[in-house]
Structure of Arabinogalactan peptide 16:
Amino acid sequence: MTCIKAWALFVIGFFLSGFMQLSHGQAQAPVAAPPMSNDGTAVDQGVAYALMLIALIVTYLIH
């Protein structure tokens, strides 16, 4: 019986120890987002993906 109580105390203590991290500090302040810039790389990448998809479809249809 004492062994069961000791084991239960250990298990409960283990699970409750996770709550100790909640008391260590506050959340950090959010960082301002960098300004949006459009250098064309997203457009280029979109065009490249579209061309690869077209090539894949054409290859599938020819095969």
